[in-house]
Amino acid sequence: MKAVFQVFSFDVVSKVVLGLMAMALIRYMPGAEYAEYTFAVSVVSVATGTLSSAFNRVYIVGYGRLGLGNEVTPFFGFQLLAIGAVAAAAYPFAGRTGGLFWFMALVVLSQCSSEFAKTIFQRELKFIRFSMVEFARSLLFAGGIVALVIWVGHRMEAWQALVVQALAGFLVFPAVAGRMDLRRLFDVQTAVRLSRQIFAGDYRYLFGYFFVLAFFSQIDVFMLKTLGTGHMVATYGTAFRYYNMVLLALAAVHTVLLPMVQNAGSAEELDGVYRKSWRLLGVFAPCVLLGAWAAQWIMPAIDMGKYPGAVTVFRVLSVSAIASFAFSPYVNLVMRFEAFRFLLLLVCAAAVASVALNALLIPRFHETGAALATLGSFLFVNGAIYIKARGLRARLSGAAGVGAGA
């Protein structure tokens, strides 16, 4: 519980800073530019969610099995090579990004680098250092956005915000650079060995899971881009920024629970970990509901009435946030048992359902329809994960059972 509150406290400050900057972007960026920025951030989220989340999760759950203790630098180099390969594969579609392709690629590289720095501290249970990386990145981003506001005011463009975002990530990576032997950064032999170990076993399902999950989390924006208008995308993007602020508590819980579940020595200890997360839900849910009620006054004051539909969208997403807080932490137990194939099949089914729901609801309810589709599909995913995790818990028999499943 103490670790959760440590991470949460730093995350509160970091996310408040980022939240203020999100409000500045909403206020100072023209609607058309903000729509392009929202789409660009969604694409970046898919790439980062696939590469960074998959590699970093493998680093934690496969640290012992893959022998990563002495291979930190080649493992990171392997990740950089994967980013380069993805960028090369995506280049033929660069024309569809409104001239933002290379700026988006820089942000992906930056985010993956800084997230790996955080993961090193996370695996070592050094949560204060973990949070300080995020805190420093947030302050650097804030400083850059403030400079942009002073420099260009209401003429801010999407590419400028992306450059600031990339620089903030690059500048915090030196926090762990001293732990690496940069001469081994592109150790091809080790990279080939790691790739064989990862993709020959169940870890390949983990990569597939994070790819589909990253795409799944942004389907609403992509569907609005296809079926709606730029104003709908901007409206949804506005609500989504506030929604991300709400999820900061969930991110803190996941940060702490992953290594705690991984290191739990008995079924009873696992139960104790999850009881703490349920107690936190008792604080989280009323705060979210209060924020959803107050949004009718706060959000129009910030966006100057440009996106009146954002309030309803935010309220729907707030309900989704409460459900995610309750059930999504159980994915860490599924990860411990390495049920990666189950996760991949689940999120593939959810992605198909999300596309169908968006196609059905957006033409009728516009951006609110996208939010309703998100709520429905996330309820499906989190409910299935909870049921699976409880089944895995039932297979445990004391410490021996937990050890056998680790």
Produce the secondary structure layout:
Elements: H1 2-28, H2 31-61, H3 72-90, H4 101-123, H5 127-152, H6 158-172, H7 174-177, H8 188-200, H9 203-227, H10 230-246, H11 248-263, H12 267-303, H13 310-327, H14 331-336, H15 340-365, H16 367-394, H17 398-405
Total helical elements? 17
C-alpha Rg, in Å? 21 Å
Shape: globular
Helix content: over 70%
Instruction: Report the major sheet.
Output: none
- Structural class assignment: mainly alpha
Whole-number total of structural domains: 2
Q: H/E series, N to C?
A: HHHHHHHHHHHHHHHHH
Output mean pLDDT.
Answer: 81
Content of β-strand:
under 5%
Number of distinct beta strands:
0
Poorly predicted spans: 397-406
Query: What is the rounded distance between the termini?
Result: 23 Å
Which descriptors apply to this entry?
406 residues; mainly alpha; 2 domains; 83% helix; globular; disordered C terminus
Commentary on this structure:
Helices cover 83% and strands 0% of the residues. By secondary structure, it is mostly helical. The protein folds into 2 domains: 1-200, no CATH class; 220-406, no CATH class. The two termini are 23 Å apart.
Brief summary:
The protein contains 17 helices and no strands. With 406 residues, the protein is mostly helical. α5 (127-152) runs antiparallel to α6 (158-172) and α15 packs antiparallel against α16 (367-394).
